[in-house]
Amino acid sequence: MKTGSSFFQLLGQGSKTFLLLVYALFALFPLVWMVIMSLKPDNQMFSTTFIFSPTLENYDAVFLRSDYSRFFFNNLCVSVLAVVVSLVVGVPAAYALARFQFKLKEDIAFTILSFRFAPEILVILPLFLIYQKIGLYDTYLGLIWVYQLITLPLLIWILRGFFEDISPDIEAAAQLDGYSWWQVFLRLLLPLVRPGLVAAGLLCFIFAWNSFTFPLLLSASNAQTSTVVALRFLASDTVHYGQVAAAATISALPEVILALLIQKHLVRGLSFGAVKG
Amino acid sequence: MSKLVSLSEHPASPPKTELSKPAAKFAKRRAIRPYLILAPALLLTVGILIPFFSAIYLSFTDFTLRSSSYTLIGFDNYTSMFQNPDFWHSLTVTLEYAVICTTVEMLVGIGIALLLNEDNPLSRFLRIVLIFPLMIAPVIGTLIWKLMTNPSVGILAGPMRLIGLGDFKWGAAPDTAMFSLILVDAWVYTPFVIILVLAGLRSLPKSPYEAALIDGGSPWFVFRNLTLPMLAPVLLITLVFRLMLSLQEFSIIFALTEGGPGDTTMSLSLLAYNRGFPFYDVAEAIPIMLFLWAAVYLISFILIGFWRKAQARAAGVA
């Protein structure tokens, strides 16, 4: 009896591990293969699978001999600046939603959240016309502004949760000690929520960086970002598959690193604070 | 809690009846402060949504990008949308895409999360690396799958030939395009379900399980009667997020099939994009997106109602 049950336990454990490995292969192999492709020289692209002489010539071609680096830089600038703008206006807003009691509070909070789930095409259609009229089409400023729909709801909702976790007593004590509201906010609260601030900021950056529909339709040759241009690599006449893979790798790498930095806060971030990880 | 909040807001304010003039002014400033703090954030986002109202106005005109003059035509764009078979086809595609993607991702995600909810080196490693597909841009993910399924350099051509599917055309053939899209969507978003469900599993209280263990309940009985009800809030909120975003999915479909071949994968977002951009019929495109927007809101509103109930119930179980 005893040996029988341990045999079935072993079988159960084995099939669990097997299922996990199958899923891991499905999830991770495409990424591994992308890196392999990006290291393959053009002349070995069709004849080899895993054994080849690796080269950095694709990266060289993508980064130094094409204007991909300019679009990469565009994406970096637009995403970083969008996060900075969101931090400046969003951190105080998150604090206000966490601490003050006022009329329409929940309505305002949900309105801000709902911006994240407005269909992008619906926002873009009229914005396309207006941006062209007021000169924001194909500019950094235009993209930074529209990216607020992605970054601001995310930042406010994540940080609201972090502010709510801090006991109001701490603030009350500091205010009784004679510190002004601003001093309490800057010197006491911001350092306390710093882990949340970093996580929320980085997650906002990732989502801004990944944005595709907004830069596709609201920018052209000037402010276009690398996500849009990477897709165009594949559509060009003479396809250099290795370069496509290199462009994809360059675009994906920063995010993999950032994801590792914020994994502790990822659950809270991805669920807008609804699930506390 | 609310007592503490009011304490922090009025640390030393005297009772209301004794307010002196400057103190009254001070109290008034306090009352409007939250609105002032919120104003910039609201202005930035509402500012970008003002075009939204001009969009509603334009949807009642015959506006196109091809001509500079336009006139009000009432509900014509709406009635012609509902009479157009393209719209109904796209609605079917959208629902098919969203329902299948969400179902597959929820089922696989819950399954993998249950398997990962154990402390061993493999689980610890996978919990970290499995989020990579979720973090990279969906378009880049789609690009990788496009390369993998490419008939000349793609790695999948060989294995597919081995299992007798050598002429599998992935996104390029009408009967496999939807399957390919769902595969890519599941690759990108299943990790989302996994990590949310995992977080939910790890926050479950231990004591009901110990009680169930003593009572000798089967694993299925425990899952059905303990885990599932306590996990319901997390599952519902995950479902809301996945359903909302998959109903609107644009970038994966645009990058892989552009709604094709023909119009086999022409979802409502793609249909509106095609009307609005290559063909410039903005006024015809807007009603399509307004319809989708209203549908998404209605569905999520209902599901969030369930979520609130489930939260109350889960609190009762725990």
Please name the defining characteristics of this protein.
heterodimer, A: 277 residues, MetI-like fold, B: 318 residues, mainly alpha, 2 domains, disordered N terminus
Task: Give a written overview of the molecule.
- The complex is a heterodimer of chains A (277) and B (318).
- In chain A, helix 1 packs across helix 12, helix 3 packs parallel to helix 6 and helix 9 runs antiparallel to helix 12.
- Chain A contains 13 helices and no strands.
- Chain A has 2 domains: 37 residues; 206 residues, MetI-like (MetI-like fold, Orthogonal Bundle), CATH 1.10.3720.
- Chain A starts with a helix and ends in a 7-residue tail after the last helix.
- Chain A is globular.
- Helices cover 75% and strands 0% of the residues of chain A.
- With 277 residues, chain A is mostly helical.
- With 318 residues, chain B is mostly helical.
- Chain B has 2 domains: 45 residues, no CATH class; 241 residues, MetI-like fold, CATH 1.10.3720.
- Chain B has 14 helices and no strands.
- In chain B, helix 4 runs antiparallel to helix 11, helix 9 crosses helix 11 and helix 11 runs antiparallel to helix 14.
- The two termini of chain B are 21 Å apart.
- The N terminus of chain B is likely disordered.
Break the fold down into its secondary structure elements and pairings:
The complex is a heterodimer of chains A (277) and B (318).
Chain A: H1 2-38, H2 57-64, H3 68-99, H4 105-116, H5 120-134, H6 140-164, H7 168-176, H8 181-192, H9 194-210, H10 213-218, H11 226-235, H12 241-261, H13 266-270
Helix pairs in contact in A: 1-12, 2-12, 3-6, 3-9, 3-11, 4-6, 6-9, 9-12, 11-12
Chain B: H1 2-9, H2 21-58, H3 76-83, H4 85-116, H5 121-129, H6 132-135, H7 138-148, H8 157-162, H9 174-202, H10 207-215, H11 219-248, H12 251-256, H13 268-276, H14 282-317
Helix pairs in contact in B: 4-9, 4-11, 7-9, 9-11, 11-14, 13-14
